[in-house]
Amino acid sequence: MSRESSIDEDDVTMTELSTDEDYTQYPSQEFTRLVDKLRRSGHVDLSMDCVWQTSSTKTPHNVYNLIDGDSATYWQSDAEQPHLITVSLAASHVVTHIAMHLDYTLDTNYTPEIVTVRTALAPYLFSDVAELQLTEPVGWQLVDLTKEETMDGARGRWVRHVQFLISENHHGGKDCHVRQVVIIGRPVG
Description:
The protein is mainly beta. The chain has helices at about 30-40, 105, and strands at about 5, 15, 20, 25, 45, 50-55, 75, 85-105, 110-120, 125-135, 140-145, 155-170, 175-180, 180-185. The protein has a single domain, classed as Galactose-binding domain-like (Jelly Rolls, Sandwich).
C-alpha cells in the first residue's frame, strides 16, 4: 500500500511504502530526506552516543554494523529466539523517532517478522511502545513517538533505554539480520 503524507509545515511530501498504526515503512531515500528535515528542525541522532548490547552475535556481523551507516552490512543473531537489541543512551532524552532498516529481498528468512519496540527510563522496566508485524519489509521501519506529549509539553517520550525484541522471523527463520538502527530525539539543555 502506498500513500502520500505531509511530514512538515513546508509541504514536503513523501511516499510511504506502507503504514500501520504502530509504524510506517519508508524507502531508504525518503527516510534520508525525513532525517535531514528532522535535523534541520533541531533533532539529533542519538544512536552514536550509546551502549549497544545484543542477545547474541554471529561473527563478523556484530552490533557495530547497526550504526555504521552502511545498509550493506548487518547484525546477525546466533541463538534461539527471541533476539534482543538493547540500546542504553548516555542520559535521558526526549526520543521522537526510532527506526530500523530491514531488507527482505536480501535476507528472506533472516528478516524479522514480529518486532516489539520497548522503552524505559531505568533498566529492566521496559514498556512496549509499538509492535511491528512486518510483511516482507524493504526499507526503514519508523516508529513515531511524537504522538505522545511529555510533562513539559515536548512531543516524544523520555527515554534512557530502547529495546527491540524480535520474536519471529519470516518463514520460521532462526537467526535474524537487522541492517541499521537510528534513534532520533531532541537535544537536552
